Amino acid sequence: MAAGGGNGKAQGGHSSRLPSQEMLDDLCSRFVLNAPEEELESFERILFLLEQAHWFYEDNTMEQNASLKSLTLREFTALMFQKCVALRPYIAHFDDIYKNFTSYKTSVPVTGAIILDESYERCLMVKGWKPGASWTFPRGKKNKDEEDHNCAIREVWEETGFDVSELIRTDDHLEVVIGQQRMRLFIVGGVPEETLFIPQTKKEISEIAWHRIEDLPKHSNESSHNRGPTGLKYYMVWPFLRPLQAWIVKNRPLITLKSDNGSKGVTVWKANTSGHTTFSTPIMVSHSVTVVAVKETTSTSFVDLPGKSFRNFRFDVPHIVSHIV
C-alpha cells in the first residue's frame, strides 16, 4: 500500500455534489499547510500529502456527507489546485505536476512481509478493496527517510492489524526490481494460523486469507496481474516464489505443525462491502493444489530523487492562512 489509508471508492451510491469550499480549505489546511517544511519542498511530496487528503475525503468526509461525489485521485487533486489559495497559482502547470508525480510513484521503493504459518506451507495474503482486486502480500510504499523494515512493520500493521516488529529479522528478506521500482519483502515464519487479523485502515483491504504456497502463480503471463492454478488473481507475487521456496528449504524448522486443512485456503477476515460492518469469523475456502513456482525479474536503475520539478517555489503560509480565516 501506498503509505496511508484506503484507496477505493465508497461502495454505495452517491450523488454528484462536489465538496464545498469550506471542506477543501479544511483539507488543505489539515494536510498541506500544517505539514513539516521538508514535505513542501517539491510537488511530488505535496501530491503525496494531497493523496492522504483524498483518502481522508473518501474514507471519512463522504461517510459523514452521503450526498458527496466520490472522486478519483486526479479529480480530487485538480479540484484542490483550482479551489485552494495555496495551490491555485500553479494550476496552469497541473498536468505536468500530476504526470511527474505518477511517474515518480512508480520508482518509490516498496516493502512488506511474507508471513508464513507454522507449517511453512501457507502465506498470508491480502485482497484490495475495489471490485476485481488481486491478492498480494501485505506491502506498501516507503515514506521519506523511512527504513525498509520500519516500512514493512507499518504496512503489515495497517493492512492486517498484526505487529511483526518483534518477529522481523532484517537479514531474512527477498528483493526484486521491476522496471524502476525496488520491492523488498521480509520473511516472517511460524505465525499461528488462528492469529486474529483485522485491517487498521478503511476501504483498502476487503479480505485476508492464508494461501497455500503451492497454489500461487508460477509465471508472469506477460502481466504483473496473473492467475494461479486455482483461478485466483494475484499481483506481484510470482517474482518472489522461487527464492521463497529456496528460503523455506534452508530455514524451515526440522519439526513444524502439519497443516490440518489439506488443500484448503483459510479466509481469516472479510469485509462486508455492502455496508460499513465487517466480520472476522474464519471461512474455509476450497482450493486445488498443484505447481512449483519459478521467478523472472528485470532490473534497471532508479529515476532521480524527487524535487526537480518546480523546485523554486515556497508557500507563504501566513499570507495564505489570512485568506482562509
UniProtKB/TrEMBL annotation:
Compositional bias (Gly residues): 1-11
Database matches in SMART domains: DCP2
Primary location group: cytoplasm
This protein's GO CC annotations: cytoplasm
Nudix hydrolase domain span: 106-235
One Gene Ontology biological process: deadenylation-dependent decapping of nuclear-transcribed mRNA
Family: Belongs to the Nudix hydrolase family. DCP2 subfamily.
Name listed for the protein in its UniProt record: Nudix hydrolase domain-containing protein
Organism of this sequence: Selaginella moellendorffii (Spikemoss)
Lineage: Eukaryota, Viridiplantae, Streptophyta, Embryophyta, Tracheophyta
